[in-house]
Structures are given as structure tokens and as C-alpha cells.
């Protein structure tokens, strides 16, 4: 069963005081995410990632479209007991301690009275906050707050977890910790849907990604596939003081340093390039395939289309 | 369902306490004790009158100020600070959230009033040296003041669900003043004709009628209050609060959180 | 959005029901709240000075509020037929002390403080004090002299004083055409019908206040009856002088040429002639304030309050 099914979900805001002008935050979006997947939602700032998450959480009402989570309508309150949410730059009641906050959230999530304390303590341990359990949240650093955020997202053991830019504002250590936590969630069989604009994280963690830009879905696919979809390139290094003209006419990028040339050619041009080198009696030093990166896929999908609209893959 | 309302209510109460709101009790205690001592010095035969009048009026005014002060931020602050995001992603319904806030706020005021009432009764004991049977009407007057608070809390919460704290404070306070003059408003509506009369009547009946809740003067004189009035006022306060809270719920249901 | 939709429906229903219920409750509360015992509290602060201080300078508004309460109070008591207007004098007094330049309370006081219950508070001296206070504070308002003269005429029957007051009012730079006429008539013909008629007619003319107008109309009708009955009884006496016996009925008088047609009272009922030569109205209860045309022993009928049992 699909853990998350988004069907033509769309949001247009009416902006302005007197004459309302429509501002499209999200064009009709359709996505399907399987159970147990770690799914990355990529896009630059303002692309519509947070809007999508707010729609799914019911914080904002959609202009059109619907979604199903774990088979139930996304507005069904029963769904909320099965999902966890970490908003971007979360803010919590600063007059509560971490422990009190988790207890309160456990209460609201319907965790039984007997389990609440246990879960809260577990979460605090797991996220390294045990020492600060009785400290008021107003005294927490950003990194600590992010950890509290993750804790409250999974403390009621939800099946699906939604994270909005979980790494934002964290130092490399913090980011690594979050990465590990997401891995852990995946190991526990949870479905993780997170948005980010940091591609290396997505590449490392996700099974599949979607690219969104200016409110429009630009592409969806598995990471493995996408990285290989990008045109394969080959890097050749050879001994030469200059770049052979025949090679330049192939439209090849080359860099000269000393008596070595470093050139990147497309896979299809490989044979032609080798012929040229042989003809000119140039010594080949190495030939290495360059693995396509997610970045290329991303950048390509972000490029403006000729005909504009429509969600495609 | 009900337990969630209770949890939200308790958290609201906890927030008020940690917000050091209850420190107002200190100011109140100072005021009322000072008055009690002073009264004993400067007047004869009306000590009881002054303590009851001053005490009850102070409780009423302090309470309204607190109700407005806390109430106006109840919803708007959560939206502004985005603390709502992680709350509403949980199974708590939006209406449960509003009702829970209301219960928490009125709970805070009831606790506050309780302590203030104890203070007033102690002051009364101090100046009059004993309690009379007619002092029971003071308790009734206190009960009516608490009913007033229900309505003021509901109004503050209503405005908080769609307006900024400053505007909410202005609107709620304005309605409190108008509501205190509701009797005169209705009298005016009765002797006016035509369109103005209709508008005046509509307004006069929509505005919360606080004048019927103010029996401070009578309590001070030890005059009895008809039992039916106690019943009617209770029902009215409940109905009016229900009406206002439903409005708040309806508004909050539709609110898009930026 | 099913559960959301349901919440909206329930919340709207609760809103409407509690709105209706609330309004209903208010009416019930009013019925208790407006009892005189409860109303005492509107007058709790009887001292205008204290009120003035408490009002933080907004005395005008407070005066308006008290005046509105006075009108409301009078209307309510009148409607209930209770005849109890004990709060009217203090209410009017406070209103005028808070704002001495507000004129309507003085007129109200002149018309309704003086007369005896159930038409008024039965406090002519309070009315007098009120008007004198008014004149002291507004010496150039002819209307107040008019009210005072009216009071002297109707309640104290002191035509001399009434004449003086009307004369004073007539001297003012801005005055009313009736003033000099009334001054003159008071002085010489205080007790005559015509004087009363002019007084009541000018009252009717000079105000828009419905209660005062109705009162004036009632008095004018009574005057008409008194006058006609007096006239008719004079004719009956003349007939007896001429013929040596009393006329049997009105038709006799008509045949004798004393009257043309059977005279009718303001209710359009013909006047009756009794066996002992007196003229009576058909339905005395229905014409208020008449002093003539009544059966023997009956006192001047007073208006029954609206809504009371007939």
C-alpha cells in the first residue's frame, strides 16, 4: 500500500488587500510514496516544499486536490496519530521543559498514560537530551531544539514521518547526527518524507526523490536511476602540451596543466576521442567513467522549459 | 476527545502561571489589606460597605484586565510563533484546541478569583470582626463576577482567533464597557423608533449584558438577590459564552496558518 | 474535509441556538432586574457631586444616561400602572444637576412630577424646585418660564404667580407668542375656561414629547366638556325660568329654540338631561379630567394606565 498518495494537490493564495491577485504556491501535484521509503523532496527556496507539507498537515487548506496517508483521507484525525511532523525552524513553548513538552505532545497524540513517561525518557536519551530534560526550552540552542523537534516527531511511534528541511541551520556534526537518525528511522521501517535543498544528503539517504520548482513538479525518480540517467561522461587524461584541434572540434571541455591534458567527453564520443589520440600518437594516461550526479539531474530539471506548464517526469 | 481538551486546558493554565500572571495577586493583596486597615481608621459604620464595594470592584477589574491580557494572545501568539505547527499535526482537532484554551483561561481566572476572594473575606473579617448571615450575598456577587469573566474570556479568545493582540484588547475592552451600560442601551433602543431603533435594539441585545451581573452594591448592603436571577444569569453566561466560542471555532477552522 | 464540515455545522448550530437562547434569557432577566427594588441601585449614588467626580469629566454623557433612565423609568411605571414614581424626582434632579443646560427634564418634571398618582409623582414642590433651578441656570429660556407658569396654574392654582412668571417670560428677547397672552389672561381671568384652553393648547403646540401631548389633548377634551355642560346647564335654567318647569329631555330644549340639534360630547355621544335638570355625559369614565357632567358623588375620572384591567 502506498504510504502517501498525493492527488492533484494545489494551492493558490489570494494576495493583496483590495484587489486580490492570485499567487500560485503549488500547481497540481501528484505523487505516490511507498511504505518504508525514504523520499526526498528537492527544490530551491520558495519552490513549494513547505507549502506541500503544510497542506498535508492540514495547516493550510488546499485550493483543490486531495491526499491519502496510510489509506485514509489526509484530514482524518485518525491519520494524525500515525504521522510525525518536524517543521522548518521549529519553535516550541519556551516555558516548558523538554520533558514536559514531550509528555504534553504524548498526551495529545494519544499515548497511554502508562507509556508516556517511558517514551519521553527514551526519546530524550536517544537524542542526547537526557541532561537537559528539566531545562526550559527557552534555554536550548538551535541544535538542541532541532533534536527536540525530531524527538516529538517520532515519540508516538508514527508510521510516516514528515520533515521540513531537517538539516537547516545545523553544523556538520549536527547534520550527520540527523542523517543517522533518518537512517535509524528507515531501519525501523518508517516511511520518511523530507524536504531539503542539500543534494548530498538526499543522495545519501533517499530511495527516491522529486524535484519541485516554482510550485511545479519537475521530476520524480529513484536516486540510483537518476544518477545513471544523467548522460554518462568519461574523463581522459593524456600527455600533451596542447589540446588536439580534432578534439576541440568535438566540443570537448579540456584543461591543460603542464604537459597533461584533462578532458571530459561524453560516453558516446569515447571511441572517436581514442581514435584521435592514436592518430596523433598521443599517449593516453587514464580513462575513467564519471558517475552522473544527482546535482546534474537537479540542475537540469530546474532549467526553465520551453513550453512552461505541466508536471512531467 | 475530552481528555485532549483537558490537556490543552492544563497547558494553558500552566503557561499563565509561568507567565507570572498570578503575581497580580500580590498587588491585589497589598491593595486590599491597605484599604482594610485604612477604612478602620477613617470611617465608622460603613467599614463593611467599603470593604465589600472596594474588594469586589477590584476583583472584577483586576480579573477583566487579566482575562484580556492573557486571552488576546491565546491563539494569535501561537500562530505567530508557529508553536501550533507541531500541535495541529497531532490528533487534536482545531475546535478542541479552542475549547481547551477557553477552559484553561477561565480556570486561571477562577483560581485567581478564589485567592482574591479569600483576601476580601479576610479583610471583611478584620473590619467587621464577624460574618453576618447577609454576607452570603457577597458570595453570590463573587459568583456573578466569575460568570462575567466567562464572557470576557470568550470574547478575548474570539478576537484572538483572527486579530492582532492590540486590536483584540481594544475590541474586548470596548465590549466590556458597552456591556456594562447594556441596560441603558436597551432603554434607549426602546424609546427610539424606525431604523435607528431597530439597529439599536439589535446591538443592545447582542452586546453582553454585564449590568445584570453587577450586584456589588446590593451585596454591600446585604440585600437579597432573587434565586431566579442566579439561575437566569448562569444560563445567560453559559449561552453567551457558547455563542462566542462557537464563533471562535468557526473562524479558527478556516484559518490558514502562514 | 468531512470531520471539518461536521464541526462547522455543529458550531454554527450552537452559535445560533445560544444566540436565540441568550436573547430569551435577557428578557427574563430584565423582568426581574427592572423591579423597583432592583432599580434602587441605579440611584445608589444620589449625590450629583459624587457622580460628577466619578464621571471623570464625562458629566454630559452621564447626564444623558440618567435622563434616558428617567424617561424609561416613567414609561415603565406608567405601563405597569403601579402609580409609584418615587425615583422620578431624584432621577430628574441628578440629570439636571449633572447638566443644568439640558432642558427636556424640566418640562418632564413640570408635567409629571406635579400631578397626583397615578398620573404623576404627586410632588409639586419638587417640581417647583426643579424649575426654579432650571431658570436660575438658564435665565434666557422662555420655555422654562412657561413650564413654571404652567405648574403654578395647574397644581398650585396660584394665578397671580403664574401671571408674573408668564410676564417675565414674555419679556425675553426670544419668546413665544403665547406668553404675553397667557400673562394677561392669568392676571385677570385665571379661572376661566379660555385661559385653560390657551394654556393646554400651547402646551400641545410647543412640544414633540408624546406623553405630554396626549396629556394636553385629554385636558382640552375635558375643558370642552366642562364648558359645554356649564353652558347647557345655564340654558336649562333659562328654560325653567321661562316655562316654569324643567325640560324633559334635550329634544325639549331644541324645540324651545335654545339649542340647534342635540349636542354631543367629544366621544360623539349625546349629552343626557337628568330629572333634576342636570346635564350628564353618557360615559363619564371615558373622558378624563372632567369636573362637570358627572353623576353626583363621582370624582373626576383619571386616565387608566395602558395595559391595566378595565
Task: Jot down its keywords.
heterotrimer, A: 313 residues, Rossmann fold, Alpha-Beta Plaits, six-stranded mixed beta sheet, 30% strand, disordered C terminus, B: 258 residues, mainly alpha, 12 helices, globular
Topology:
The complex is a heterotrimer of chains A (313), B (258) and C (310).
Chain A: E1 2-15, E2 21-34, E3 38-42, H1 49-57, E4 64-69, E5 72-73, H2 77-80, E6 83-86, H3 98-108, H4 113-126, H5 142-154, E7 160-164, H6 172-187, E8 191-196, H7 199-205, E9 208-213, E10 216-222, H8 223-229, E11 233-239, H9 245-248, E12 253-257, E13 260-266, H10 270-279, E14 284-290, H11 294-302
Parallel strand pairs in A: 3-8, 3-9, 6-7, 7-8
Antiparallel strand pairs in A: 1-2, 1-4, 4-5, 9-10, 11-13, 11-14, 12-13
Helix pairs in contact in A: 3-4, 4-5
Chain B: H1 2-18, H2 24-42, H3 47-71, H4 76-81, H5 84-88, H6 94-128, H7 136-160, H8 165-180, H9 182-191, H10 194-206, H11 216-221, H12 227-254
Chain C: H1 2-33, H2 36-39, H3 48-54, H4 59-80, H5 88-98, H6 104-112, H7 124-137, H8 142-156, H9 159-170, H10 178-189, H11 193-206, H12 210-243, H13 250-255, E1 272-273, E2 279-280
Antiparallel strand pairs in C: 1-2
Write a brief caption for the model:
The complex is a heterotrimer of chains A (313), B (258) and C (310). Chain A is of the alpha/beta class and 313 residues long.
Amino acid at each position: 500500500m502506498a504510504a502517501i498518495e498525493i492527488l492533484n494537490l494545489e494551492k493558490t493564495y489570494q494576495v493583496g488587500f483590495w484587489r486580490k491577485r492570485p499567487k500560485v504556491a503549488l500547481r497540481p501535484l501528484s505523487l505516490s510514496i511507498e511504505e518504508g521509503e525514504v523520499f526526498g523532496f528537492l527544490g530551491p527556496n520558495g519552490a513549494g516544499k513547505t507549502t506541500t507539507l503544510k497542506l498535508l498537515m492540514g495547516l493550510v487548506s488546499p485550493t483543490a486536490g486531495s491526499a491519502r496517508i496510510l489509506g485514509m483521507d489526509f484530514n482524518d484525525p485518525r491519520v494524525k496519530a500515525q504521522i510525525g511532523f518536524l517543521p522548518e525552524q521549529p519553535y516550541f513553548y519556551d516555558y516548558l521543559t523538554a520533558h514536559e513538552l514531550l509528555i504534553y505532545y504524548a498526551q495529545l497524540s494519544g499515548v497511554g498514560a502508562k507509556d508516556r513517561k517511558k517514551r519521553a525518557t527514551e526519546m530524550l536519551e536517544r537524542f542526547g537530551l537526557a541532561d537537559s530534560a528539566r531545562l526550559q526550552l527557552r534555554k536550548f540552542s538551535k541544535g538542541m531544539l532541532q533534536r527536540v523537534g525530531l524527538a516529538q516527531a517520532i515519540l508516538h511511534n508514527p508510521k510516516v514521518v514528515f520533515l521540513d528541511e531537517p538539516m537547516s541551520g545545523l553544523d556538520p556534526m549536527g547534520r550527520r547526527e540527523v542523517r543517522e537518525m533518518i537512517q535509524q528511522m528507515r531501519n525501523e521501517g518508517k516511511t520518511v518524507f523530507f524536504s531539503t535543498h542539500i543534494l548530498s544528503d538526499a543522495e545519501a539517504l533517499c530511495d527516491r526523490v522529486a524535484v519541485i520548482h516554482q510550485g511545479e513538479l519537475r521530476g520524480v525518480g529513484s536516486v540510483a536511476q537518476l544518477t545513471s540517467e544523467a548522460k554518462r561522461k568519461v574523463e581522459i587524461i593524456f600527455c600533451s602540451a596542447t589540446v588536439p584541434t580534432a578534439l576541440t572540434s568535438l566540443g570537448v571541455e579540456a584543461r591543460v596543466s603542464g604537459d597533461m591534458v584533462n578532458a571530459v567527453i561524453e560516453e558516446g564520443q569515447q571511441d572517436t576521442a581514442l581514435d584521435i589520440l592514436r592518430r596523433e600518437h598521443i599517449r593516453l594516461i587514464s580513462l575513467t567513467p564519471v558517475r552522473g550526479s544527482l546535482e546534474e539531474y537537479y540542475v537540469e530539471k530546474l532549467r526553465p522549459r520551453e513550453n512552461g506548464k505541466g508536471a512531467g517526469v | 476527545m475530552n481528555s485532549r481538551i483537558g490537556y490543552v486546558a492544563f497547558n494553558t493554565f500552566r503557561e499563565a502561571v509561568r507567565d507570572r500572571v498570578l503575581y497580580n495577586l500580590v498587588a491585589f493583596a497589598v491593595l486590599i489589606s491597605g484599604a482594610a486597615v485604612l477604612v478602620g481608621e477613617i470611617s465608622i459604620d460603613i467599614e463593611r460597605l467599603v470593604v465589600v464595594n472596594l474588594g469586589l470592584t477590584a476583583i472584577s477589574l483586576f480579573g477583566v484586565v487579566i482575562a484580556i491580557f492573557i486571552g488576546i494572545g491565546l491563539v494569535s501568539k501561537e500562530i505567530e510563533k508557529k508553536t501550533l505547527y507541531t500541535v495541529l499535526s497531532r490528533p487534536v482537532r482545531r475546535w478542541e484546541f479552542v475549547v481547551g484554551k477557553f477552559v484553561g483561561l477561565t480556570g486561571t481566572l477562577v483560581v485567581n478569583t478564589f485567592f482574591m476572594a479569600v483576601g476580601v473575606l479576610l479583610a471583611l473579617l478584620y473590619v467587621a470582626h464577624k460574618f453576618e448571615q447577609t454576607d452570603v450575598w457577597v458570595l453570590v456577587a463573587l459568583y456573578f463576577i466569575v460568570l462575567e469573566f466567562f464572557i470576557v474570556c470568550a470574547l478575548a479568545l474570539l478576537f484572538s482567533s483572527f486579530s492582532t493582540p492590540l486590536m483584540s484588547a481594544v475590541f474586548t475592552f470596548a465590549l466590556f464597557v458597552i456591556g456594562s451600560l447594556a441596560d441603558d442601551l436597551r432603554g434607549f433602543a426602546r424609546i427610539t423608533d424606525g431604523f435607528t431603533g431597530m439597529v439599536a435594539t439589535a446591538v443592545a441585545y447582542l452586546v453582553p449584558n454585564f449590568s445584570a451581573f453587577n450586584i456589588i452594591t446590593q451585596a454591600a448592603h446585604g440585600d437579597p438577590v432573587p434565586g431566579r436571577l442566579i439561575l437566569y444569569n448562569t444560563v445567560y453566561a453559559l449561552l453567551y459564552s457558547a455563542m462566542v466560542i462557537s464563533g471562535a471555532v468557526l473562524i479558527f477552522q478556516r484559518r490558514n496558518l502562514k | 474535509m468531512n470531520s471539518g464540515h461536521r464541526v462547522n455545522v455543529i458550531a454554527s448550530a450552537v452559535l445560533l441556538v445560544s444566540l436565540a437562547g441568550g436573547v430569551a434569557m435577557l428578557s427574563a432577566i430584565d423582568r426581574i432586574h427592572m423591579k423597583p427594588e432592583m432599580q434602587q441601585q441605579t440611584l445608589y449614588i444620589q449625590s450629583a457631586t459624587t457622580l460628577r467626580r466619578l464621571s471623570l469629566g464625562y458629566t454630559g454623557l452621564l447626564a444623558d444616561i440618567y435622563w434616558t433612565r428617567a424617561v424609561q423609568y416613567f414609561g415603565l411605571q406608567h405601563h405597569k400602572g403601579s402609580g409609584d414614581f418615587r425615583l422620578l424626582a431624584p432621577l430628574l434632579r441628578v440629570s439636571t444637576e449633572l447638566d443644568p443646560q439640558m432642558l427636556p427634564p424640566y418640562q418632564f418634571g413640570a408635567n409629571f412630577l406635579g400631578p397626583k398618582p397615578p398620573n404623576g409623582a404627586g410632588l409639586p414642590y419638587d417640581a417647583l424646585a426643579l424649575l426654579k433651578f432650571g431658570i436660575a441656570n438658564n435665565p434666557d429660556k422662555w420655555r422654562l418660564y412657561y413650564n413654571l407658569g404652567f405648574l403654578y396654574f395647574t397644581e398650585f392654582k396660584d394665578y397671580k404667580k403664574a401671571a408674573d412668571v408668564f410676564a417675565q417670560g414674555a419679556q425675553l428677547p426670544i419668546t413665544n407668542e403665547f406668553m404675553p397672552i397667557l400673562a394677561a389672561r392669568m392676571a385677570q381671568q385665571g379661572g376661566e375656561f379660555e385661559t385653560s384652553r390657551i394654556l393646554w393648547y400651547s402646551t400641545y403646540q410647543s412640544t414633540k414629547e408624546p406623553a405630554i401631548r396626549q396629556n394636553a389633548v385629554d385636558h382640552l377634551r375635558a375643558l370642552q366638556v366642562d364648558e359645554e355642560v356649564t353652558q347647557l346647564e345655564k340654558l336649562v335654567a333659562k328654560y325653567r325660568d321661562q316655562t316654569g318647569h324643567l325640560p324633559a329631555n334635550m329634544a325639549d330644549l331644541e324645540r324651545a329654540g335654545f339649542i340647534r340639534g342635540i349636542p354631543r360630547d367629544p366621544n360623539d355621544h349625546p349629552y343626557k338631561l337628568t330629572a333634576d335638570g342636570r346635564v350628564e355625559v353618557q360615559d363619564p369614565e371615558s373622558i378624563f379630567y372632567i369636573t362637570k357632567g358627572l353623576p353626583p358623588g363621582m370624582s373626576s375620572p383619571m386616565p387608566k394606565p395602558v395595559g391595566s384591567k378595565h
